[in-house]
Specification:
It is built from 1 helix and 27 strands. It is mainly beta.
């Protein structure tokens, strides 16, 4: 049998939830509750479009110009976002992960980022997906199996969908007080701004409201945490169905993107919500960048659930 283009598939089920995990990029390919999509899916025998559901490591988002200096050495990464001249979403997104533990409701996938030009470090990446009656719980761990310190960051890349319609018709609750402003052309970080005043409050979703035609491709921080010390983002459709995502303080940032595309047929199909351990271009700014000592591990996690 020929392996699908997105790799080996692992079907998960628990309660009213089902999910499918694709081994290439340890990607969340489908997630449903009572048969309703909670993320924008992609086909098994399809090259995963727009990083849907991919695991981002050893950095999320962008390294500007693919160039950074670490431990006194200047490095140059491949420019995987050539139209903007950046290195995008890490080195794990096209690795074929191997299952090391498996049940009807969970799978643990492992792959190694080998030392290479631009990232001369070896890091073992372990991704766990576990379904239960409260939703899909995911964790990503990076273990430095090399001999030197390694820069590290991670996050997921799901495109959430509450049910019917498109982004313009959905209500977003995003408890973030600050937004990272960026340049229009290359999305290069400029600086933090107050969501209440930046662009007349267009990024302020602390009180749930309709997204409408707002364009978002920004990182947010200064996240408000609830009683369980978690941040909760919710997305609801006009009929009241929805999807939520929660995470703890191991991810002090979240990237949100309205998934605008040149092709109207595929534009604004879902809202990317990407909890991140560090902001865009952290390899240069050093902001919240994790440095893994040899033998050290860093772990972050998040949950997606139905509303």
């Amino acid at each position: 049998m020929t392996t699908p283009l997105s790799g080996t598939h692992y079907g998960l089920a628990a309660g009213d939830y089902t999910a499918t995990i694709a081994s290439v990029g340890a990607s969340l390919r489908t997630l449903q509750h009572h048969g309703r999509d909670l993320v924008v899916p992609f086909e098994a025998d399809e090259i995963r479009p727009a990083y849907r559901g991919a695991t981002l490591a050893p950095w999320p988002n962008r390294v500007v110009d693919g160039r950074y200096t670490f431990d006194g050495v200047e490095e140059q990464l491949p420019l995987t976002e050539p139209n903007r001249g950046n290195a995008l979403h890490g080195l794990a997104t096209w690795l074929d992960f191997t299952a090391v533990d498996r049940s009807a409701s969970h799978v643990v996938l492992v792959a190694t980022i080998e030392a290479q030009t631009g990232y001369p470090h070896r890091v073992e990446v372990t991704v766990t997906f576990a379904l239960d009656e409260s939703g899909l719980h995911s964790t990503v761990s990076g273990l430095n199996t090399g001999h030197d310190d390694a820069p590290w960051g991670t996050g997921p890349h799901p495109y959430l969908t509450p049910g019917s319609g498109r982004v313009d018709e959905w209500t977003l609750s995003l408890p973030a007080a600050s937004v990272l402003t960026v340049t229009d052309d290359r999305l290069i970080p400029i600086g933090l701004a107050d969501v209440e005043t930046e662009e007349d409050g267009s990024f302020d979703f602390r009180t749930p409201r309709l997204i409408g035609t707002t364009f978002i491709d920004h990182a947010f921080t200064d996240l408000v945490r609830g009683d369980e010390l978690t941040t909760a983002v919710t997305l609801t459709a006009a009929d009241g169905t929805g999807v939520g995502m929660t995470w703890a303080d191991d991810c002090p940032w979240v990237q949100v993107h309205t998934a605008d595309q040149a092709n109207p047929a595929t534009s604004r199909l879902g809202l990317a919500v990407e909890p991140m351990t560090c902001p865009p271009d952290a390899f240069n700014s050093g902001t919240d960048l994790i440095v893994l000592a040899p033998g050290a591990t860093a772990t972050a996690g998040w949950t997606i659930h139905a509303i």
